[in-house]
Structures are given as structure tokens and as C-alpha cells.
Amino acid sequence: MLGTPSMAGPLRGLVQRLQDWPVASQQQARRNAMVAATACAQRRAEREDVADYLAALPVRDPAAAPLPDAAPGVHRG
């Protein structure tokens, strides 16, 4: 039965898909890794920008002007 022409086409297609799967899976994994690496690089650049901004701020003397108390009705615990 497997040697009949009516079954050869579907089986050949299934076998081809099974043979192609590892390559397609690896390509998708590489794409996912590239997207993740790009996102990590963007976050790192943002963190560095924030760190540079905070480092450039003048140092504030905490004794000169204390921070205001919490807004009314807000409990600091």
C-alpha cells in the first residue's frame, strides 16, 4: 500500500517536512535570540542614559532642605 502512487505524495511531503524541521527550528531560535539581544541592548542603553543623567545632577545636601512629608492620608510604613 505504501508503494502506491496515491500514498507516495502525502508521505513524501510529510517526510520532507520532518527533514526540514530542525533547520526551520534553528532559524526561528536564531531570530528569537537576535530580537532578545536587541531588546537587552536597548534596555542597557536606557539604564546608562539614566545613570549618566543622575550622575550629572548636583549633589544635594540632605540637611539643607528635608524632603516634604508624605501627602495627607498617605501612611509611610
Q: List low-pLDDT spans.
A: none
Give the helix tally: 1
Shape: rod-shaped
Strands, count:
0
**What is the mean predicted local confidence, pLDDT?**
84
Most strands sheet: none
Helix content: 55-70%
Q: Rg, please?
A: 30 Å
Series of H and E elements = H
Terminus-to-terminus distance: 77 Å
Beta-strand residue percentage: under 5%
Which structural class fits the helix and strand makeup?
mainly alpha
3D architecture notes:
The structure is a single chain. By secondary structure, the chain is mainly alpha-helical. It has a domain at 19-53. The chain contains one helix and no strands. The protein has one helix at residues 5-56. It is rod-shaped and about 90 Å long. The chain starts with a helix and ends in a 21-residue tail after the last helix.
